[in-house]
Amino acid sequence: MTQKLKIASWLGAGALAGALATISLQPLARSATSPLPLEELQQLARVFGMIKSEYVEPVDERKLITDAIAGMVGSLDPHSQYFDKKAYKEFREGTSGRFVGVGIEITQEDGLIRIVSPIEGTPADRAGLKPGDLITRIDSTAVRGMSLDAAVKRMRGQPNTRVTLTVMRPDENNRTFTVTIVRELIRTRSVKGRVVEPGYAWLRLSQFQERTVEDFVAKLREMYQQEPRLRGLVLDLRNDPGGLLDAAIGISAAFLPSGVTVVSTDGQIEDSKAVYKARPADYARRGGSDPLRALPAAVKTVPMVVLVNEGSASASEIVAGALQDHRRATVMGSQTFGKGSVQTVRPLGPDTALKITTARYYTPSGRSIQARGIVPDIMVDDTAEGSPYAAFRTRESDLEKHLAGAAEQAPDPDIEKEREAALKRLEEEAKKPAAERRAPEYGSDKDFPLQQALAQLKGQPVKVSKTLAERSNSNAADADKTSGN
Fold first, then answer.
1. Side-chain half-sphere of 442: how many Cα atoms within 13 Å?
2. Which of 1, 22, 76, 322 is surrounded by the fewest CB atoms within 10 Å?
């Protein structure tokens, strides 16, 4: 089953690289909490010496040390990671919303790379690439069998360098052509939205980055200028894999009363025990002014629905959990990913760092959602026909070495049977033409969950899922803060 999970893992974690960490940046800890195990460290040094002197061929000392560190950190949980120079650079690009590349959002389809959307004004947009185009080769390398992460790395590079993409366009009888694009600095926006009909707006967050709160404020103000008397707002967090903790606090604070709890954290060290509230001190970056000050007062009271799914993780779950606990919004969709842990990035030097899990987080009412996720108030399917792949989507509880959730039990054996059935449906679906298999674009008039969210805001009947149910390894009631430690 492991290989089968790999085949369709993109269905569950948002078509990007999976769930991002909820990140805070902190300096290296001042001191260890217990003495170092000298005997074991001496043994590690002896092994290093034996490999260096006796291995069949010369080895790179720095690579040996780097691999040892990476292996040690990788043994902890799925989200702790050692960043070498290259990985640290890529991580910082991901959270800043800036990178050097061609400017496209991509996902995987039938072993190829499908363009979800070119980013407006980027080289890919100027080159005429369109949503739905399939990339079959990057330079001289075929992409079939290539991971999504590997494809991203091949398309990124240095400014003013060239990359040649071979593209197949299904909408034009699978016409194949090549296009050479010059890479440049791309600035992504994690916020999009529009007034979908008179009185009702849709606002989507695709990730929590450094400028997410500022971009969110600008977009919301723009929509209020267009529609000063909004009667309902849909906050779309589907397939949002998370990101920066302060951004999640800021988005939550925009809709909540000043000073209420957004999220709390608890871990082994004193710095990890914290309560974050809806106040500028907890979300304004680098001591700057309050970015939420420019929002219309009506934002605090506009009726809201929050859309989530299995790809909503980490920071997305913080926001959904806070708005749900404070009864500020109705949460709709399917059960979220269940990443209830906080990662702290501690620089080890100018070019390397350690991302380490330092705490679990808890919603305002004290719920730990680790390995469980946020359970929507109203379960809604992906399409009018249902959620055919819900059982096949990967969550935190499926990840090897994941932190245990509250009262976690052995997985339900029926889930394996459900996944086998889902795989068969996936194989049948793959036989259909690409145009029939493509999911409707988020925010479109064919977006079924969005239409149900609008119905909820209008007081109209909602087509509640008849098949989705809470998927959890725990049948126990919500645990308090002490049960997860």
1. 21
2. 1
Q: Are strands 200-205 and 232-236 parallel, antiparallel or unpaired?
A: parallel
Contact yes or no for 82/348 (Cβ under 8 A)? no
The residues that bridge with 185 in the sheet, in sequence order, are 100
Helix axes 61-74, 38-54, angle to 10 degrees: 140
Distance CA 10, CA 242 (A): 16
Q: Which helix (H) or strand (E) holds 233?
A: strand 232-236
For 57, the token pair is: 């061929």
Q: How far apart are CA 55 and CA 303, in angstroms?
A: 66
Residue pair 392/422 in contact (Cβ under 8 Å)? The answer is yes
Strands 330-333 and 304-308: parallel
Closest C-alpha among 94, 97, 203, 170 to residue 442: 203
- Integer CA distances (angstroms), 275 to 94, 278, 285, 324, 363, in order: 26, 10, 17, 17, 10
Backbone angles phi, psi at 93, to 5 degrees: -65, -40
Give per-residue pLDDT as tens, 434-482: 455 556 789 999 999 999 999 999 999 999 998 787 764 433 333 333 3
Which helix (H) or strand (E) is 304 found in, with range?
strand 304-308
Alpha-carbon distance values, 256 to 251, 325, 333 (Å): 9, 11, 21
- Give pLDDT tens digits for 197-235: 999 999 999 889 989 999 999 999 999 999 999 999 999
DSSP label at residue 106? E
Residues annotated as catalytic are: 314, 325, 339
Nearest partner of 340 among 117, 78, 87, 84, judged by Cα: 78
d(CA 442, CA 185): 26
The answer, as to whether pTM is greater than 0.90, is no
239 alpha carbon, distance to own chain's centre:
6
Q: How far is CA 21 from CA 9, 105, 422, 458, in A?
A: 18, 20, 28, 35
CA distance 49 to 53: 6
Q: How far apart are CA 275 and CA 366, in angstroms?
A: 11
Residue carrying structure tokens 């790379």? 113
3-state DSSP assignment of residue 99: strand
